[in-house]
Amino acid sequence: MVGIVGKPNAGKSTFFSAATLIQVPIANYPFTTIKPNRGIAYVTAKCPCKEFGVKDEPANSICDEGTRLIPVELVDCAGLVPDAWKGRGLGNRFLDEIRKADAMIHVVDASGSTDLEGRPCPPGSHDPLEDVDFLMREIDMWLFQIVKRDWKEISKGKDARSSLEAKLSGLSMGRPHIERALSDSGLEHKKLAEWEDGDLMRFLSRLREISKPTLIAANKMDLPGAEEGFEALRRRGLRAIPCCAEAELALRRSAQRGITNYKPWMGSFEILEGAALSDEQRRALAMIMERVLKRWGGTGVQEAINSAFFELLNAIVVYPVEDVEKLSDHRGRVLPDAYLVRGGTTARDLAYMIHTELGEGFLYAIDARSGRRLSGEYPLRDGDVISIVSAEKRK
Ligand SMILES: Nc1nc2c(ncn2[C@@H]2O[C@H](COP(=O)(O)OP(=O)(O)OP(=O)(O)O)[C@@H](O)[C@H]2O)c(=O)[nH]1
Ligand SMILES: [Mg+2]
Asked: What's the DSSP call for residue 19?
């Protein structure tokens, strides 16, 4: 799951709604969202159907003229204000959502037209870099508070490392994350009982970076002042994507209503012949074309979602099939499933993901492109079409 986070009024719900087409309250004041919205968005990948020259019949995903859409879960969180970790604003409720997040999209108002608390202010009068610093600090303080509460028990026990792991497992932080954070913060050889608060803070901050990688959706790029805000984020070395969630929402709705042929991965659109639209709608679409699509190449919403999964989480897409000639499953469906898996997943891992028995009986896999046999240890590559041969199947 990817969490959409940020201060109030930055455009999180607009981003969420644009990505999922779920209607949620959106308004120009803080704390419009009071309980998290969950929904399904899609990452996009090039579908192998064109390359193989086949007509596919997707089951767990969608193919839209050669673009495969694979469902992913997004959560739109309530806005976070300074001292949220102490329970200020809707702090605790918001922060609890982050427990389950594997990565975060931080929606920042790059135009600087909302203050740290999300109240409207003149464009350019608020520094978006402050938003980044405070949000990460809030999350770190919240983590610190959770762990510190039980620190005595954790650190004094016989197996302190295991107790720490158990405590952190509920935060979607696993052993590999923890080991890396320990080593990065130079604490791998220091006994937990000897840690000072500063050590714990440093460790948790690094752990947050590793286990909940974050990218910035530099939002409201249609407004004056946004370009400077965006440049400032980039200069700081942050992974920031120029975004206009409002434009994406308007465009997706226009396509839904048959006004335009817009698709989120297109970066452009045409008004469909015979579409009934008012002068105002026409003007709004022209403005989006000029200020957003031509200027930035897209609205950034789909790019942010794809980056969260493909870059931050290092995901790849693989297509398991049963019949390597027809590229079909046992029901004859061609290229039925697209699996979004972590880079490094092996052919055997994939077999287990499909079915335990397929994993247990694994003999070898076949690469549909080359016809080559692959061993269980073969690390899958993005776009692979793979058939798994298992002892089960041979019976
Ligand atoms: N100009 C412009 N306005 C935007 C954009 N995205 C969102 N907004 C506006 O910003 C305001 C806040 O949007 P929301 O999506 O409700 O913000 P939020 O971050 O969910 O706010 P809370 O739920 O209060 O935390 C609304 O008036 C939106 O229309 C954008 O890309 N450009
Ligand atoms: Mg909201």
From this structure: H
- How many CB atoms sit inside 10 A of residue 384's CB? 22
Radius of gyration of the chain (CA): 23
Q: Whose CA is nearest to atom 10 of ligand 1?
A: 11
Helices (H), 21-88: 49-52
User: Considering the chain, what percentage of its residues have pLDDT values greater than 70?
Assistant: 98
The ranges assigned to domains in the chain are 2-36+77-235, 316-394
| Assigned fold of 316-394 | Ubiquitin-like (UB roll) (3.10.20)
Return the closest-CA partner of residue 284 out of 242, 243, 246, 255.
Answer: 246
| Amino acid 92: pLDDT | 67
pLDDT tens sequence across 81-99: 888 888 777 666 677 788 8
**What pLDDT, in 10s, does the model give residues 297-312?**
999 999 999 999 999 9
Using CB distances shorter than 6 Å, the residues near ligand 1 are 6, 8-14, 26-28, 30-33, 78-79, 118, 219-220, 222-223, 244-246
For the question of whether the overall pTM of this predicted structure is more than 0.85, the answer is yes
- Residue 311 Cα to ligand 2 midpoint, Å, equals 25
Query: For residue 80, how far is its CA from the centre of ligand 2 (angstroms)?
Result: 10
